[in-house]
């Protein structure tokens, strides 16, 4: 949890001997924006290009 806190993903509130963790609102907003952008299909998306091979396993 300390790594997530240091990365700015969660914040802590100390309550006696307990630590309560919550997600940073800024992180949640940025994560959603980045995910939406990543999953958006547009003319620049590799999956939409006609010269792209569908089967890359060959």
Task: Give a quick rundown of the structure.
This protein is an alpha+beta fold. The protein has 2 helices and 2 strands, in the order αββα.
Architecture overview:
The chain is of the alpha+beta class. The protein has one domain. Helix content is 34%, strand content 21%. It has a two-stranded antiparallel sheet. Strand 1 and strand 2 (18-23) form a beta hairpin. The longest helix has 15 residues, at 25-39. The protein is rod-shaped. The termini are far apart. The model has no long low-confidence stretch (mean pLDDT 82).
Keywords:
single chain; alpha+beta; 34% helix; rod-shaped
Describe the SSE topology.
Blueprint: H1 2-6, E1 10-15, E2 18-23, H2 25-39
Antiparallel strand pairs: 1-2
Protein name: HTH arsR-type domain-containing protein
Organism: Loigolactobacillus bifermentans DSM 20003
Low-confidence segments: none
Q: Rg to the nearest angstrom?
A: 19 Å
Q: Could you give the distance between the termini?
A: 42 Å
Structural class: alpha+beta
Order of helices and strands: HEEH
Largest sheet report: 2 strands, antiparallel
Number of DSSP strands?
Answer: 2
Strand order of the largest sheet: 1-2
Coarse shape: rod-shaped
Strand percent estimate: 15-25%
